[in-house]
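Quick review question:
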């Protein structure tokens, strides 16, 4: 039985320790697809709170949102405090529950390069100052990164483990338009290649089950992502949560979620196509609360992993 090369294995080999990602969310951060810069309403599947850790560590910043054109940030001290509190709480739990020894601070929710450079620099350097932190992982969009930020991260990467995570989702522009993504596939390719040219580690997020896509299209997206040189990958099934445009499409009968069988079939083929050096950070996703509308098989992640491993076993693979 061959073990699929995972991000955990990579980190263990790199640092000779149990390294865990600490997910954080910074209030005041948003997305150009939400604030109207490139589109309005966000991606059709997006209800950001359902993908986020708790945002309750400091009082919310009502009506305050940053973008690339912001000239000042009067709430930076509060954001730094929020960052510190989230890290302390989550890393402590990871130590107690999983024996974590070192950490990557994962800027997870919203678009974490979509702010003035001075703000980003302050937050990133604060995160790197925490005990046990060996690096950063920064979730973002390809249309929200500047060359200045990439070059700064390149300098940080000379001494720290620096990752940038791009939502690729699909390489089909008609799909990106249908989900209201706000940019095309060429933009994703451009900025992944720029990040790689700066020597940065890149993780690509792929969504299987997007509206109008068949298996061949999903696999084409995976193939292109590998060709662009990503170092790590996250595979996600598309699921429907409340308070999203996709929920309205589902209610009108305009969208049918991918079945678990179809998802696992595509996933296994995508893994088999994957270059050996590309490690896997996630093979599925879901949410187990009343915000999930469909498909119900996305409710229990442990059950999903069990079913995925049962199918992988047929190909002498294990996650």
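Suggested answer, residue by residue:
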């Amino acid at each position: 039985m061959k073990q699929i090369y995972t991000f955990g294995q990579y980190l263990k080999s790199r640092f000779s320790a149990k390294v865990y990602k600490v997910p954080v969310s910074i209030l005041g951060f948003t997305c150009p697809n939400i604030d109207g810069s490139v589109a309005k309403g966000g991606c059709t599947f997006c209800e950001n709170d359902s993908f986020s850790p708790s945002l309750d560590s400091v009082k919310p910043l009502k009506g305050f949102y940053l973008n690339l054109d912001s000239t000042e940030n009067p709430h930076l001290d509060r954001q730094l405090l929020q960052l510190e509190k989230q890290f302390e709480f989550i890393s402590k739990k990871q130590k107690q529950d999983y024996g974590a020894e070192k950490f990557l601070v994962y800027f997870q929710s919203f678009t974490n390069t979509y702010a003035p450079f001075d703000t980003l620099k302050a937050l990133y350097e604060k995160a790197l100052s925490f005990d046990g932190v060996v690096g950063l992982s920064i979730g973002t969009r390809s249309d929200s990164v500047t060359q200045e930020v990439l070059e700064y991260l390149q300098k940080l990467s000379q001494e720290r483990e620096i990752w940038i995570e791009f939502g690729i989702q699909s390489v089909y522009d008609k799909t990106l338009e249908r989900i209201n993504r706000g940019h095309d596939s060429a933009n994703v390719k451009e900025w992944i290649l720029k990040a790689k040219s700066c020597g940065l580690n890149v993780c690509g997020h792929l969504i299987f089950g997007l509206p109008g896509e068949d298996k061949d299209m999903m696999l084409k997206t995976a193939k292109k992502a590998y060709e662009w040189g990503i170092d790590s990958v996250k595979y996600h099934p598309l699921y429907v949560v409340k308070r999203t445009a996709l929920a309205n499409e589902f209610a009108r009968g305009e969208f049918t979620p991918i079945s678990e069988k179809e998802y696992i079939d595509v996933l296994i083929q995508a893994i088999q196509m994957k270059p050996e050096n590309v490690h896997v950070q996630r093979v599925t996703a879901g949410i187990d609360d009343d915000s999930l509308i469909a498909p119900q098989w996305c409710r229990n992640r442990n059950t999903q992993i069990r079913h995925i491993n049962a199918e992988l076993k047929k190909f002498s693979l294990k996650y």
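Why it works: The chain has a mean pLDDT of 94. The radius of gyration is 19 Å.
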